Amino acid sequence: MASADSLNRPLALTCGEPAGIGAEIALKAWARRDAGLPPFLMLDQPARLARIAQDLGLSVPIAPIAQAAEADAALFAQALPVLALEAPIKGTPGHIDEGDAAAIVEAITRAVRLTQAGDTAAVVTNPIRKQSLKAMGLNHPGHTEFLAELAGADARSVMLLASPRLRVVPVTVHVALAAVPRLLTADEIVAVTEATARALRLDFGIAAPRLAILGLNPHAGESGLLGREEIEIIAPAIARLKAAGLDVFGPVPPDAAFHAGARNHYDAAICMYHDQALLPLKTLDFDEGVNVTLNLPFVRTSPDHGTAIDIAGQGKANPQSLMAALRLAGAMADTRRRAQAS
C-alpha cells in the first residue's frame, strides 16, 4: 500500500456537499483500500457516515478519532477514521440542506489547517456546490480560490487536471466563453505557464517540463484569418517564456493537440479556456481525472467530477476518480517532501 509520505501521516479528506456522492465514494474508496491507497481520515460526522454505509449495504466500520495522529496505517486497515465536525449536517444524499454550508467550509478549513500544521500530508476535497461558499459570504467561484485564500500563498494558485494520459491547465477558468478573449493576456499566459512549470518540478518530479501552449481560435488563428489573439497575445507570451528558459512551443492548433502522437511531446498543455482543457481530459480518462491546485504551500487534489446529487444515495457512484485523487495526493506529497529536503 502506498504511504502518504515517509512519516506515515494520513491525507485529510473533506466531506464535500452532504447531499452529493462524497460520502459514498469515500466509503467505497476505503473498502478498496488495498488498491494502492494511502491512509486517509475524513472530516465529517461519524454517525452520518455509518448510517450511509448501512443504507448502501457497505461493510465499512467507522472509527471516530479526536486527532489526526490516531489515523495511522494500523487503524486505517481496520476502519475509516473520522474527525467529527463541529457544525451539524442535516442534508442527506440526494437532498440539499442550505444550512450545511457551515460544515462544508469547516471541513475545508480544518483540512488545510491540519496539513499546514504537519498533522496530515495533503488535502483531498470532495466536490462541493459553489453556492455553499456564497452562502457563507465567501465570494469565490470554487475550491481553488478559497484554498488560495486559506493558504495565504504569495504565488498564484493554478488549476491543473491530471490523468494517466494527459495533464492540462486552463488559463481562464470559470468564466463565460464570450469573456475569454477579453481576459486573455500575455501576462496571464506567462504567469500560469511559469506556475505550472514550477509545480511540475516540485510536485511531479519533472526536472525540465515540456509545455505545449495552445491557440485560442480554430487552426490557431490561421495567420490572423480566424482571429488575431495568437499573433497579438499568445505568440508574444511564448517568446517571453522561451527567453526565460522554459521549454515551450506553440501556438498549437487545439484540434491537433490531444491525439496520442501529440501528447508524447509535452508534459502538460496550457489551454486558453475551461472546456478546451477539460473536454479532452474527460474524454480520455473520465474516471481517472484528478483536479490539482498548483502552487499552494500544501498539496491539494480532488476528484474531477461534480457532486452528482441526482444519483446520490443510490449506490451508483464510482469512486475511481477519488481513488486517483488520493493516490496522486500521496505521490505528490512524497515528491514535494523529497524536493524540499534536497
Structure description:
With 342 residues, this protein is of the alpha/beta class. The chain folds into two domains: 1-152, Isopropylmalate Dehydrogenase; 154-295, Isopropylmalate Dehydrogenase. It is 39% helix and 16% strand. It has twelve helices and twelve strands. α3 links the parallel β3 and β4 (80-84). It is globular, with a radius of gyration of 20 Å. The two termini are 25 Å apart.
Number of E-type strands = 12
Shape field: globular
Mean pLDDT: 92
End-to-end span in angstroms?
A: 25 Å
Structural class by SSE content: alpha/beta
Total count of helical runs of at least 4 residues: 12
What is the CATH T-level topology of the largest domain?
Isopropylmalate Dehydrogenase
The description of the largest β-sheet is:
12 strands, mixed
What's the CATH class of the largest domain, please?
A: Alpha Beta
Work out the helicity level: 25-40%
N-to-C series of helices and strands: EHEHEHEHEHHEEHHEHEHEHEEH
Question: Radius of gyration from the CA trace?
Answer: 20 Å
CATH superfamily of the largest domain: Isopropylmalate Dehydrogenase
Order of strands in the sheet with the most strands? 3-4-2-1-5-12-11-6-7-10-8-9
User: Percent of residues in beta strands?
Assistant: 15-25%
CATH architecture of the largest domain: 3-Layer(aba) Sandwich
Low-confidence stretches at least 5 residues in length (pLDDT < 50)? Answer: 1-6
Number of domains: 2
Short description:
With about 350 residues, the protein is of the alpha/beta class.
Chain-wise SSE layout:
Elements: E1 11-14, H1 22-31, E2 40-44, H2 46-56, E3 62-65, H3 73-78, E4 80-84, H4 101-116, E5 123-124, H5 130-135, H6 143-151, E6 158-163, E7 166-170, H7 180-183, H8 186-204, E8 210-214, H9 229-243, E9 247-252, H10 260-263, E10 268-271, H11 274-285, E11 290-294, E12 300-303, H12 320-341
Parallel strand pairs: 1-2, 1-5, 2-4, 3-4, 5-12, 7-10, 8-9, 8-10
Antiparallel strand pairs: 6-7, 6-11, 11-12
Helix pairs in contact: 8-9
